[in-house]
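Interim report to the steering committee. The following record documents the input for Glycosyl hydrolase (482 residues).
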Amino acid sequence: MSTKTTAFPKGFLWGGATAANQLEGAYRSDGKGLSVADAMPGGKQRFQILGSDTFNWEIDEDKFIYPNHRGIDHYHRFKEDIALFAKMGFNCYRFSIAWTRIFPKGDEATPNEAGLKFYDQVIDECLKHGIEPVITISHYEMPLHLAKEYGGWKNRQMIDFFENYATVVLTRYGKKVKYWMTFNEINSAFHFPALSQGMVKATGAGDYRNVFQAWHNQFVASAKAVKIGHEINPDMQIGCMIIYATTYSIDANPINQMATLAQNQEFNFYCTDAQVRGEYPAYQQRMFDKYGVMELEIGEDDLELMKKHTVDYIGFSYYMSSAVNETAEEEDTVVGNLLGGVRNPFLEASEWGWQIDPEGLRIALNELYDRYQKPLFIVENGLGAIDKVDENFYVEDDYRIDYLRRHIEAMSDAVKDGVDLMGYTPWGCIDLVSASTGEMSKRYGFIYVDLDDNGEGTMNRYEKKSFNWYKKVIETNGQDLK
């Protein structure tokens, strides 16, 4: 067992991360409207169904189950859950606001007060326990009405709807909440626009012109949110949020090296270049030529807004790395967090086939910090696994502890490399509905929730072995990882 000395700065943010659509449930309570997540069926075929030519955001409860509708009932049990987070020692908690609790359809002028009051309670409960809220404004749950009636983020009207929503929540909570992020995993649209852009093939997701236009509209909306937030509270820290997958060429062949460079630019850097540097990168035209994008609809003040109101930090998820092989006649491919790649023979994989690469996290941190010199925040990282409970609902999840230990050691090494790292919020700190499959059996949490894929169970909460391990990690500021 490794006993490396770790080094994290005083005030380092330790916590966990969730998303409203995956744990709250109560999907029609207190005036909440339907979101795109509410229309996503559960099961291993979820992405295949969403990516089909015929899917059009209709909910068919005779044909599918919808686990997000119930989640883990955090809406009614948030005090219990936050108390468990406090028991672990969290000094921060990343969660999202459900847009449809505030604006049920998304295009209303007046917000839903019941939704605002709910998040008043969640924020106050966190602060009562000394937990700093870290809030994602839009986490894969835009109003379904905006996806169906406006076609999602390709429509420029979305900027105004988001500005109205962001203004309301930043004004309401901006004096209490310091840390924010605008869009969750914004670059995920490169492979799957349904989640972050609200577009499916029936509404234009198969055309990259729509994807890039939607990104532009989101970049402008994000810049407006940064502007609004800083005007409300100059101390507010507003970040972007991306998926980061450290990318390797499978060999030294220059063709594969160039393909790796291009994949890094397109997936890892395009959205951060726009939101962190505030301008489009030089390689954008090459991307447009490659994907058949002629030009974007750009408003008169858009580029100035993007340049003046860049994000304060970079939040990112890291689960796996990716390998590139353009020269192979047959590829041995693997799956991953939207981005797969070819099999890396030096890495093991999770039960869902995601290749585990702690050293890749250190590389990711160095690559991002060298490129941008902005503070970094790892806001998702974790191991999805099938947990087996004993007769007392206790889980001996040493595999999860080992995964997290090795990634925290990599984080510490990156800090020693000179990286400015703000914090760490492992994903799914409590078991919740998987975004990729809608399953409960793909578990990430320190807390076991008694609920299965068919919605059966008490939903009672139980501490896993990793619960007390992570508590010790936080108590020692990452010094004791045994």
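The chain has a mean pLDDT of 95. The committee is asked to note this result when reviewing the revised timeline.
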